[in-house]
Amino acid sequence: MYATSLPMFPLLALLLVLPSCLSHEVKDNTSERLEAARFSQRIKALKQFAETQNACCTYGILIDMSKPSSQNRLFVVNLQADSVVIAGLCAHGSGKQYNGETVIFSNEPGSLLSSEGRYKIGAKYYGAFGMSYRLHGLDSTNSKAFERAVVFHSLSCVPDEEGEPLCLSHGCPMVSPNVLKKTAALIDQVQQPMLMWVYK
Questions:
Q1: Can you tell me the distance from the alpha carbon of 168 to that of 86, in angstroms, rounded to the nearest whole number?
Q2: CATH code, domain with 86
Q3: 98, 165 Cβ separation under 8 angstroms
Q4: Rounded distance, CA 84 to CA 82, Å?
Q5: Buried (b) or exposed (e) across 165-174, using 16+ Cβ within 10 A?
């Protein structure tokens, strides 16, 4: 008696599809590894820069504006352990033309745009947005941040959870009240000024 054989065409189709699926999985894993490696390099670079600025070498803030606003793109990192301790959503500047999700950088006063570069987090104060921190630009791309009143602050329209595109700021890195509260605890704890790096 002959054994019943499996249908040829479905099996052949499965064999043709499998390599494609595996290829996508390998590409995804490679992309994730590359992104993790780039992020790790960014942490190391921020730590090295902090050492030259007499700044805090324990914690720093990375803001990756290449990510959509609906995803976490602010990361408070432990520069010694090469790890993330706080992650949260962060709004970018709207610009005068209301650019929506498109992140455009500018250093010009009145542009209402975010500025790329490294910042020293300055004095805490309480203003129109409650608890806020002055920001001092350390690069040519954000040297007018203090003049522009670009500050680190929160607003209730920024949620704690990922999901929908965010409200926009006038150029400030703007987070949820809860994320600012947790980050402020570290900013106020360290003896030397903490650094922030906005990039994409």
A1: 21
A2: 2.40.440.10
A3: no
A4: 7
A5: ebebbbbbbb
Identify whether 64 is part of a domain: yes
Q: Cα(first)–Cα(last) distance of the chain, in Å?
A: 67
C-alpha dist (Å) from residue 177 to 2, 41, 64, 163, 190: 72, 29, 19, 17, 20
In a domain, 154, yes or no: yes
Is 194 in contact with 85 (CB distance < 8 Å)? no
pLDDT tens column, 80-123: 999 999 999 999 999 998 888 999 999 999 999 999 999 999 99
Give the chain's domain count.
1
pLDDT (tens digit per residue) in 32-59: 898 999 999 999 999 999 999 999 999 9
Nearest CA among 130, 129, 173 for reference residue 150:
173
Residue 2 in any domain: the answer is: no
Q: 31 pLDDT band (50/70/90 cuts)?
A: confident
pTM, two decimal places: 0.85
* Within-domain flag for 105: yes
Q: Rounded to whole angstroms, how far apart are CA atoms 125 and 105?
A: 25
The predicted structure's pLDDT at residue 25: 57
DSSP notation for 91-136: B-B-TTTT-TT---B--STT---B--EEEEEEEEEEETTEEEEEEE
Structural domain boundaries, residue 33: 12-199
